[in-house]
Amino acid sequence: MEALRAHPFGESGPATHPVLQPERIPTLDILRGVALLGILLMNIQVFGLTEASLDQLIRNPHGGNYWLLTLVYGLFENKMRALFSILFGAGIILFLTKTRSGSGMEAPELFIRRQLWLIVFGLVNAWGLLWHYDILFHYGIVGIFLFPFIRLSPRALLVCAIVVGLIYSGKLYWQFAEQKQKYEKFLPIAALEKKNKKVKLTDEQKEAKSAWEGLVKEHQYDSKADKADVLAMRSDYATVWTHQLPKIKQMEAPFFYQLGIWDVLSMMLLGMALFKWGFLSNRLTTRQYIFLALGGLLIGQAMAWLSLPVHELEIVDFAKYVSGSSLPVADVLMPFERAFSAIGWASLVLLAYRAGVALWLWKALGAVGQMAFTNYLMQTVLCTLFFYGYGLGYFGDLKLYQLYIVVAEVWLLQIVFSLIWLKTFRFGPLEWLWRSLTYGKRQPMRLTEKTPQITPVFS
């Protein structure tokens, strides 16, 4: 680990080469596989159902589907995506401090090329495959910002992660404060109209009234809009594209620059710190992993269940949520809830791996994680073709519990595909394409192909 604290870049020298099989860190692949498969537990809900219909389960809290939604939300919402971001942060250090070979480019140049191509893949995932919750575009941009942080110590990286997490909490609180301000401006207008129904409002009062009522309407169930949403998603590609376009624009522009960047940045910084400490590469003691598993999950889950009533109240009665709360607990705690939970889940996985049980499971998860890029985009392709109208058109047709049957099938398919593929090839197909584009030349694909001679980064 001392090498990671050294100056990472020389003034000259050969450039970085792709990670070869003997150089891979098994636990990184395993954790990446867990995170990748875990992300689908949350994404499947939006792939297969309207968000309005999911909210309706909370407004009518009874039956197995409500409890399933609550359980998945409490255990996995934001946690698996946080772990995925943590691992991407670790990958930044791994890429910039790995061994080198002579391809004519320095590690920094290759890293920027790598991130720019990731942005392109993210745009394809969102605008071509029509997945508006794509994270590749965000990862590509944030990764470039993190380039200078490679030089920081683990403690400094952790401090940066906490600061960014606090900024994220602050942004979420500010959003709530703006909503509360709209409510407080509306109250005297409502009282005035109640007192005199024929009162003539000023333009400023009309604007304030409209702002609050529009906000309330956004949080109410509209059956006609919900049915129209389902109908559009069951239509041809052009119709689905037009319908998804506003959501894609929202996620990749306003949401990202206002909130998403702080979300991704905090977890990637945490991942860089954890990697430098040896947490992700299985270098801590068993006692330390037990402490982190228990502490992370207890604190993270306590925050999650404490936040749950507030989260549900926002959906059930938005006016009561804004008027009766001085602090949006669910939002303010979320950046730290997911960090503690992600560390807890990762520690639990590493403890099970260290125990040496179910070796077949670790091999399977490692294969999925080694091909995480391919498998992430494969999830988009499989789910959009299954649910959207230009495929099988099952959008809005299945109950929540039935969506998890689809999840199990996708998991099985990805595990089997990954294991079979890696018996012949070094990389997943999209990993190979990404690397070839990054290095500007075709990379060795088959296990039997010769690899370039390598020399250490640090001498």
UniProtKB/TrEMBL annotation:
Name this protein carries in UniProt: DUF418 domain-containing protein
DUF418 domain residues: 274-441
One family name in Pfam for this protein: DUF418
Record field: transmembrane: 30-50, 82-99, 111-129, 135-150, 157-176, 255-277, 289-308, 342-362, 374-395, 401-422
Taxonomic path: Bacteria, Pseudomonadati, Bacteroidota, Cytophagia, Cytophagales
Keyword tags: Membrane, Transmembrane, Transmembrane helix
InterPro entries from the UniProt entry: Bact_Transport_Assoc (IPR052529), DUF418 (IPR007349)
Domain of life according to the entry: Bacteria
